[in-house]
Structure formats: C-alpha cells, structure tokens
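Q: I have two molecules that I believe assemble together. Could you output structure tokens for the complex as a whole instead of separate predictions?
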Amino acid sequence: MFEFKNVYINNYYTLAGPLEKENGLKNCDFFIKDYYYGAKTIEQAESKMQKTVLNNLINKEKPEAILSSDLTNQLTASALGAVDSNIPHMGLYSACASFSSILITLGSFIMSKHIKKGLCLISSHCLAAEKQFRFPVEYGAPKPKRSSQTATAAIGIEVSSNESNIKIVRGMLGKVLDSGVKDAHNMGAIMAPSAVDTLINFLKESKTEVTDYDIILTGDLGKTGSSIFKEVLKKEHNLKIKNHLDAGGSIYKDFEYSGASGPAVLPLILLTRILTSKKYKKILCLATGSLHSSLLVNQKNTIPTVTHAIYLEVNK
Amino acid sequence: MVKKEEYLKLVEKVTPKENKMENAINSFVMGGVLGFLAECIKLFLVNVFSIPVRDAIGWTLLIFIFLATLFTSLGFMDSLVSKFKSGLIIPITGFAHSITSSILDYRKDGFVTGIGSNVFKLAGSVLLYGILFAFIMAIVKVILYV
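A: Yes, here they are, computed for all two components at once.
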C-alpha cells in the first residue's frame, strides 16, 4: 500500500479517435479525424497523438520526468512520443493497468522529493494494437461477442506537489495472478480475478468498505468481465457492489462486442466523465491488465493478469 | 481466489454464446452464392469467348482472386469477411484476402523485411500443409495404382 501526502493532479489533456467521437464521448479536448493523423504509419500516428498531448501540457514550468506507456512493440509509440521533448523519460508497461502503476510511481517520486512535477502519458491505438496482438488490420477475422476492441485515445496527466482539488491519496500494486483462461478474446474473464483480488486487498489494508467510495471504476473488463467480476465478489466474498462502473463497457453505445480495451480507456472515462460530473468525490480506480502477448497465446499458455489500484479524492 | 475449475465454469456460464446456427447459415449461403457466381462466369467465358472449359476455370479463379484483392485494398472486404465468415474465408477469396491484408499491414516496413517476410503470415500454413498433403496423397496414389 502506498500512502501519498501532497500529491495532486494539476492538469490533464485528453485526445480520442473517430469511433469514440461517433459514440458521443463528451468533454474530450481533441478528436483525431482519421487513424493516420497525418503520419505515415499507424505507430507513428500513435506517437504523434502522445506528442500532441505532451505539447498541450507543457507550460512554463517543465515537468522533471515523463512516464509513459502504450501497447505497441517495446513501447515504440512512447519512445517516439518523448523524442524532442528534452525531458527525462521512462517507459512503464503493465498492459492496460499502466495508468495506476504510472501514477503510483510518479506519486512515489514526488513523495520522496526527487521530483516536483511529473507527467503521465498513456496512449492506445485501435489499429496498432490490432496489428500487434491479433490479425492484420484489413483482415476481417471474425470476432466473437466476448472480445473487446482497443480504444483509440491518448491522455496526459500532470502530477505535482502543488495543491489542487484532485488529490492522489492511496495506491496499491496488484499481484500477478494466473487467470487459468487461455482464450485471449475473453479479456474480461482473464482480468476479473485480479480485479477482485486487488479490490479485496485494498479494502482490507485501507480498512474501508465498498460503500465508502462514491464510485469504483474498473478499467476494461467489458460487459462480460463486469458480470464475472460481480459474480465472483458475490460468491467468494459475499460482497455486493452497486457503485461500480466499467470504463471499457460504457464507452461505446450498443456495442456488439464486450467493450473497449486499452490502457487509455480508464483515464479517458475518468477525466472526461467522472471528474467533470462533480458528483463523485471518492474515486477508486482499478486499472485491470491482461498481460498477454501473441507468443504466450500461440504457446497455449494460460494468461497472467494484474490489477493496480489508485484512490483519488476530489475536493469542492 | 476461486478454484480454477469453478472459475472456468463460471466464465463459461457468463460469456455470451455465439450464434453458431446463424453463422453457419450465413457462411453456407455466401459460399453457395460464390459458387453460383463462379459457375455463371465460367459459362459466360465458355459460351461468349469460346474458351475451353479447363482454361475458363482458371480464368474464373483469377477473377475471384483479383476481386478479393481489390476489395481488401479498397477497405471493405474485412467487414464482408467478418459478416459471412467461412463463406468467404474457405474459398480462394479468403486466401487472396489474407495475403493482401498482410501486405497492407507491412507495406511501410520495407520490401524484404516487411512485405517479403510477412506476406504469408496467415496464408503460409495453407501453403505448407497444402503442399505436404499433396505430396502424401501423390505417394498414396503411386502405391495404390502401380
């Protein structure tokens, strides 16, 4: 458990793709019109998305470190995105759970006074992820209903010790669990056990109840994963949660698949929908990650999963 | 954590089922339509251009390969394939589609390192096992008929 003091979110910027716009995503700072975003390749487009976010967040006082994450080969988009920024950079990969792990790392840097201000950058690109993890983009491989689609989005969050109304209070790194599921389509089923595990551990260590939070926001469990998540909580821990929202399951309307996935989904919904609604003051984010690769799937391994938690408090 | 077997049972219960019957009918009809079209084209070639039947079959296949490649490049073949599934994947259109989509994905990664090494990413197994089984069947034929 990480207890943070004087770590705040000062500023943020969100960027999303055409499909997200079509589905009526509101309060987003910028939408890209096409998946190439003026770049030659989709990977370069993703890094350009990160650059746009970065340039919109840098003001007079430069951040002392950038921590970024994405889903492409060895964090290609993050590396390209940080070029020319002239700011120390570190890439951090925990698949779709990267949001929480980056905030926890930045929070620790700030707590230990090594830096005053840091930047968290996260992106995911629908086509780049498709090429990386599944089939070629133009190959219309039949998708089952349980599968999810990677969202196209990039977000940036400025974290510093300067006081603001959004406070990072606690964080918890999750354990890597073996889901026992081999089917990489069913990411909800892969990630649900670790979401349950981290939630239970978080509640135990922080000595809180589910009802203490205004909302428990999970990353990209999707519709299938959310039902499994609730079912396991009820069966194993006799816990019913009413204040649960799954970011991935709620981003697209009337979606024929399970929902959206990707590391940027949770922060995108958090920044555009949860923080702007002013209704929620105590927000527990469970960023769920399925740690799979095409190598692991081809070798018929069961897929490991991890969930990192971060707890935010909004004043005012 | 829940026991593995119990958890997998729960997953199976909650996961939405695929509509196999609908998929099968879709594919069956689409495959049939493709076959019908191919037969029409073949007859057209034989009767109008007076091409021998054996050559007309080759030309028909070429026409389908060309169309699948063109549609993939124009960007709407993928939605057709995800709708009609095996109806378009099993015929020669699927082979052409898999090759073209791989080329499109890797067209910026260089002619050798990109297109050259990835062109048969999906179709490679069809080629390899096709050739292997043709070889085995040829041996069987030789043994049976000599």
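A: One point stands out. The domain at 8-160 of chain A is CATH 3.40.47.40 (Peroxisomal Thiolase; Chain A, domain 1).
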